[in-house]
Amino acid sequence: MIVGLAIMAIGFFFYSKFIAEKIYRLDPDFRTPAHELRDDVDFVPTNKFVLWGHHFTSVAGAAPIVGPAIAVIWGWLPAFLWVTLGTVFFAGVHDFGALWASVRNKGKSIGTLTGTVIGNRARNLFLVVIFLLLLMVNAAFAVVISNLLVANPASVIPTWGAIVVALCIGQAIYRFKVPLLWPSIIGVVVLYALIFLGQSFPITLPESVLGFGPKAQWIILLFAYAGIASLLPVWVLLQPRDYINGLQLFVGLGLMYAATLFFAPEIVAPAVNADVPEGTPGIVPLLFVTIACGAISGFHGLVASGTSSKQLDKETDARFVGYFGAIGEGMLALAAIIACTAGFASLGEWQGIYDKFGSGGVVAFVNGGGNILANGLGLDPGLGSTILSVMAILFAATTMDTGLRLQRYVVQEAAEIVGVKPVQKGWLATLVALGTCLALAFGAGGDGSGGMVIWPLFGTTNQLLAGLTLAILSVILIKQRRPVWFTAIPLVFLLVMSVMALLVQLGKFYADQNWLLLGMDIVILVAALWVAMEAIVAMARGAGGDQPATEAGPR
């Protein structure tokens, strides 16, 4: 824990400062899109701490818990090294860079920016990959949240109560101009009070409503909420909800780390597991796509360039929002590794949970972390589990409502490209995004769990997207005659590992005769390789002396 946190602290205070000054060259006088294009709906200048809360909780989701909680089956040491070093040298540079590039280009998303930097064909292919990734995230996270709400009814009140708290904070800060300190303190206190209230009044849904069970009911309610939230001005709900959730979640992480410090639990899992269960794939390349969020994630680039860039008050805030946002997610992934390797009484108990690849997940995090909280801080085990369940739910929920807003942007961009003007409207694009998510959720699973059908492709698609985003950044840096190694090395590593993983999965899907995933795998692979080749050509052109195609340079 101490070594991991120290590595991340060094990364933020030293490495990110070098990247900000020497590579991205942030300009405090640059007029950001939040000011230039201000509409108080999507483009809103925002306090950097509030924006960090939005960015951190939006990018975190359930993935930095699920990924490490599965990957420790290979042992805790590989997961630890990938999370800590990946956060510092990969995720921070990627997230920070996507935010910077978007801010320098009028808040364009990374998909649209591809057209400016590389070409329209690459942009169109990139949008396909982005849309599929968002579809996976939104449909699958709805399943994760509904499962947690059903399994832990005590988490229902704090989960939905957080929305009311966020609405009040948004009004207090933006309408009544209340200084940030008191809404922050009161909001966190109320959120934790709601956790205690949830313990006393657990809520369960009816066994059947119109033929839908509790999990399906929650999924429908979650998508209804996400659709409404994605259309509201960001300052009304999205931004204050993410901010106050970020504070609450950081308090939860603090409790987890304090309990680890006081309890000093023994790690019962092996450092490197030489006796993995039968059927477990090789650690290379699967480790690097199983842990995506928490080391590096393409989804972060979508959030950075999709919503965060439109709210950045000063360009110099990009270092705190982008790089420190990645550090926050790395800290969550590190906590997940600790909970899933030191939260069990014995090696035998750990092996009983990790008896096959894919086991563990959120349940191992909640149970293992709950044990550490109980032993380290003396919390009631049920209360500790509820705190961690609410933490996981709020992370996933904030990602889901941001993800649907991003999916709406992609639909609008695609409609603009093909010239379908009606779908360019916000509410209609949102209906299209919702319709595709619900079609997947209920078309591939009658209980709404269809989102999990394509989840096996999430990690590889996510990492491919991160690699392609780094390719865009590399092209920009080459055209600006700036050092490119800091993005190019992570780019090459990610593309190699992701393509290897897609090929491994391709063989598995074919052997299992899973034609849906096989087809999607081929589409994603072809699109990604095509965009990568066009990026290489663009890099060569840029190195040869072509003029910059973007505004990503000093003014």
From TrEMBL:
Instruction: Cite the InterPro entries for this sequence.
Output: CstA, CstA_N
Give the CstA N-terminal domain ranges. Answer: 1-341, 359-501
Q: What GO terms fall under cellular component here?
A: plasma membrane
Keyword Transmembrane helix assigned to the entry: answer is yes
In the record, biological process GO terms are:
cellular response to starvation
What membrane topology is given? Multi-pass membrane protein
- Segments spanning the bilayer are 56-74, 80-103, 124-150, 156-173, 180-198, 218-238, 250-271, 283-303, 323-347, 387-406, 427-446, 452-477, 484-503, 515-533
Protein localization: Cell membrane
List the keywords (alphabetical). Cell membrane, Membrane, Transmembrane, Transmembrane helix
PANTHER family the UniProt entry points to:
INNER MEMBRANE PEPTIDE TRANSPORTER, PEPTIDE TRANSPORTER CSTA
Question: Which family is this protein grouped under?
Answer: Belongs to the peptide transporter carbon starvation (CstA) (TC 2.A.114) family.
| Protein name per its UniProtKB record | Carbon starvation protein CstA
